[in-house]
Design a protein that fits this description.
The chain is an alpha/beta fold. The protein contains 12 helices and 9 strands. The strands form 2 sheets. It has a 6-stranded mixed β-sheet, sandwiched between helices. The protein has a 3-stranded antiparallel β-sheet with strand order 2-1-4, with helices on one face.
C-alpha cells in the first residue's frame, strides 16, 4: 500500500511536469524568439520515460448533458461597451452565438476575456440570452462558501433533493472513495476544479461557460474533460491558453482585438495566423530603402540593451536546458525500478524533481519576459 501511494505521488508529479512543459510550449511556439526553446520543451516530454499509474488508479470520467434544447440563437451581444476599471476593453462590440457552437474567446492578456465572460453572467442590457437557455459556469478560481464542509457535503448542498446514490455516483467519476470525505480547505487546485466539474454535471445546462478550465488539471483529467466536451451537443463558450484543448474542443475562434470581436476561423492555427499578420508589419513610416532609417532604427542605448538582453537570454536558456536534462535523468531513474524498495531514496529523487520543477517555472517566466523584450527592441 505504501509503495502504491508513492507510485501514485510520483506519477502525479510527472503528469504535472508534463502539463507545465506543454503550457510553456503553447505560450511560446508562436514567437520567433521563443519558438526554439518551446520546441525543446516538446522534445523533453518525448524523451521522458513515463511513470505508469498504480493498477488501482481509476481513470477520471465526465459527462455533460441537458434535457431541453434552447432556441437557435443562444446569445446576442449588441453594441457592448465594457471597462476594466478605467481601461476600455470593448467598444460597441457585437457577437452572436448559435446553438451547438463551441466558441473559444482568445486575445492578448489584458484585452478583457475574463471580464467579458463575467459580463455574460451579469444583468447587462447589451447581452441577450435566448429562450430556454440554461447556463453552467466554471470560474478560473473555485471558491466555497463554507470550506469546512466535505466534498460529499458540498455537492449535496448543491443538490439538496438528490439521494445519496446520485451524489456518490457523480463524485465517483472524478474522486476516490476516501477523497469524498476530505474537507474543502484541504483540496488542491486540481481537486477544487474536479468538484466544480461534478457540480456542472448535475446542472443539466445546455450552455457551458468556462474560464481557463484546464488550469490545475493533470493530464488524465484534462483528457476526460476534452472527451466529454467533444461529445457534448450543447453550446460552449470558453477562454483558454491551452492550444491542445482549444484545437480539441473549439469549432469557432473569436478574437478580442481593437475593442471588438473578430472571427478568425475554427482552429488555433487560424488564430496564430491572425497574430502573424499583426506582428510582421514593419514600423510606421519605415522605409527599408532609406539609409537614414536603417541607421536610426536602433539607438546606441538600444544596441547596448540588446547585447545585455541576448547575454541574459542565453544564460537563462542554458540553465533551463541543464535543469531539464537533470529532471529527465531523475525521472528515468525513478521509473527504472532501481530504487523500487528504497522509499527513502525515491522520496529524495522525487523532492529534487519537484525542486527543479519550481526552479524551471520561475526560469520559464523570466525567459519569456526576456524574449518579449528582445522582440520589442529588435
Amino acid at each position: 500500500e505504501e509503495k502504491e501511494k508513492l507510485t501514485l505521488k510520483l506519477y502525479e508529479k510527472q503528469q504535472n511536469e508534463i502539463a507545465s512543459l506543454k503550457e510553456y510550449y503553447d505560450k511560446n511556439i508562436v514567437r520567433a524568439t521563443t519558438a526554439k526553446s518551446a520546441q525543446s520543451r516538446l522534445k523533453a516530454i518525448e524523451r521522458m520515460v513515463l511513470i505508469e499509474p498504480p493498477q488501482k488508479h481509476k481513470k477520471p470520467r465526465m459527462k455533460f448533458d441537458y434535457k431541453r434544447e434552447p432556441v437557435k440563437t443562444v446569445l446576442s451581444v449588441n453594441n457592448l461597451n465594457l471597462f476594466g476599471g478605467d481601461k476600455k476593453l470593448l467598444f460597441q462590440a457585437s457577437l452572436e452565438i448559435k446553438r451547438g457552437q463551441k466558441v473559444a474567446i482568445l486575445g492578448d492578456n489584458g484585452t478583457g476575456k475574463t471580464t467579458f465572460i463575467r459580463c455574460l453572467l451579469s444583468d447587462n442590457r447589451s447581452v441577450s440570452w435566448g429562450e430556454n437557455v440554461r447556463i453552467s459556469y466554471f470560474a478560473q478560481e473555485t471558491e466555497f462558501e463554507n470550506d469546512k464542509r466535505s466534498v460529499l457535503e458540498e455537492l449535496w448542498n448543491e443538490c439538496p433533493d438528490a439521494d445519496r446514490y446520485f451524489i456518490r455516483s457523480n463524485l465517483a467519476l472524478l474522486f476516490n472513495d476516501e477523497d469524498v470525505e476530505k474537507p474543502l480547505c484541504q483540496l488542491s487546485g486540481g481537486e477544487r476544479a474536479k468538484l466544480a466539474f461534478c457540480k456542472m454535471m448535475t446542472q443539466n445546462a445546455n450552455v457551458l461557460i468556462m474560464d481557463e478550465p484546464t488550469n490545475h488539471l493533470d493530464i488524465e483529467t484534462r483528457e476526460a474533460l476534452e472527451t466529454a466536451l467533444k461529445l457534448y451537443t450543447g453550446t460552449i463558450i470558453f477562454v483558454s491558453h491551452d492550444r491542445y484543448f482549444i484545437n480539441a474542443v473549439a469549432d469557432r475562434i473569436v478574437k478580442i482585438c481593437d475593442y471588438n470581436f473578430i472571427d478568425v476561423g475554427n482552429t488555433y492555427e487560424s488564430y496564430l495566423n491572425s497574430l502573424i499578420d499583426l506582428t510582421e508589419k514593419p514600423p510606421e513610416n519605415y522605409n527599408t530603402g532609406s539609409k537614414k532609417n536603417i541607421k536610426n532604427f536602433r539607438t546606441k542605448d538600444d544596441r547596448k540593451r540588446l547585447v545585455n538582453l541576448k547575454e541574459d537570454f542565453a544564460k537563462t536558456e542554458l540553465l533551463i536546458t541543464t535543469l531539464e536534462e537533470e529532471s529527465i535523468k531523475l525521472n528515468e531513474l525513478i521509473s527504472s525500478g532501481k530504487y523500487s524498495k528504497d522509499y527513502k531514496k525515491l522520496n529524495e529523487l522525487s523532492e529534487r524533481v519537484e525542486e527543479i520543477t519550481l526552479q524551471l517555472n520561475d526560469l520559464y517566466k523570466k525567459w519569456e519576459e526576456l524574449g518579449i523584450s528582445l522582440a520589442e527592441i529588435q
